[in-house]
């Protein structure tokens, strides 16, 4: 969720946030060190600090769209969207959205998947922030960027 180069080096909030994330070895399969953010959600200070760090970084940057990746981007994205005055757009797993969608398939650490977004949720020229809990291979994040990049008038 964070990179040390993001101007946060030495920020005391980071250590507490890091400690609040439980690491579960070999879940959901052998060799994966699963970063479990549900324990972060149980700690209101660490949870709020996490949201605040993003809000402080991305407010006043003319961002009108916060796009959250299902499922864990849905846990952080809406709070960030409300605080920076942007709309929240879900990037959902297949067959979850009832309207017309555009889709992007991708590979991840343990399988393949697809993200979908409602057509019309984002307009051409809008500036978007993509929120998720974690980047592993980067496949999910790349698919989210491609999806947002296909928006047409
Ligand atoms: O960088 P990547 O290799 O693409 O992996 C990162 C993605 O994997 C996890 O979600 P997951 O696909 O497990 O879905 P879930 O949150 O719906 O369980 C995580 O929340 C990211 O979205
Ligand atoms: N190591 C990991 N922890 C949590 N979610 C993940 N998604 C892909 N790799 C993961």
TrEMBL record:
Gene Ontology BP terms = purine ribonucleoside salvage
Localization terms from the record: Cytoplasm
Q: What class of enzyme is it?
A: transferase
Which pathway features in its UniProt record? Purine metabolism; AMP biosynthesis via salvage pathway; AMP from adenine: step 1/1
| Catalytic activity, EC | 2.4.2.7
User: Has the keyword Transferase been applied to this entry?
Assistant: yes
Task: State a GO cellular component annotated for this protein.
Answer: cytosol
A single Gene Ontology molecular function, please?
adenine phosphoribosyltransferase activity
Query: According to its UniProt record, which reaction does this protein catalyse?
Result: AMP + diphosphate = 5-phospho-alpha-D-ribose 1-diphosphate + adenine
Q: Domain of life, per the record?
A: Eukaryota
Q: Which InterPro entries does the UniProt record give? A: Adenine_PRTase, PRTase-like, PRTase_dom
* Main subcellular location of this protein, as a coarse class: cytoplasm
Keyword entries, A-Z? Cytoplasm, Glycosyltransferase, Purine salvage, Transferase
Q: Which CDD domains match?
A: PRTases_typeI
Pfam families from the entry? Pribosyltran (PF00156)
Phosphoribosyltransferase domain span: 45-152
Subunit notes for this chain? Homodimer.
Family from the record:
Belongs to the purine/pyrimidine phosphoribosyltransferase family.
The protein's name is adenine phosphoribosyltransferase
Organism from which the protein derives: Ziziphus jujuba var. spinosa
């Amino acid at each position: 969720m964070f990179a040390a180069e993001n101007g946060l080096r030495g920020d005391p909030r980071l250590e507490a946030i890091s400690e609040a994330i439980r690491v579960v070895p070999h879940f959901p399969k052998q060799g994966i060190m699963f970063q479990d953010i549900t324990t972060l959600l149980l700690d209101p200070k660490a949870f709020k600090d996490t949201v605040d760090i993003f809000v402080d970084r991305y407010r006043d940057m003319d961002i009108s769209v916060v796009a959250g990746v299902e499922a864990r981007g849905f846990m952080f994205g809406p709070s960030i969207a409300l605080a920076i005055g942007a709309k929240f757009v879900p990037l959902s797993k297949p067959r979850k959205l009832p309207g017309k969608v555009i889709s992007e398939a991708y590979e991840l650490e343990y399988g393949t998947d697809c993200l979908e977004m409602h057509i019309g949720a984002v307009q051409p020229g809008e500036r978007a922030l993509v929120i998720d809990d974690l980047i592993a291979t980067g496949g999910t994040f790349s698919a989210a960027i491609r999806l947002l990049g296909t928006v047409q008038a």
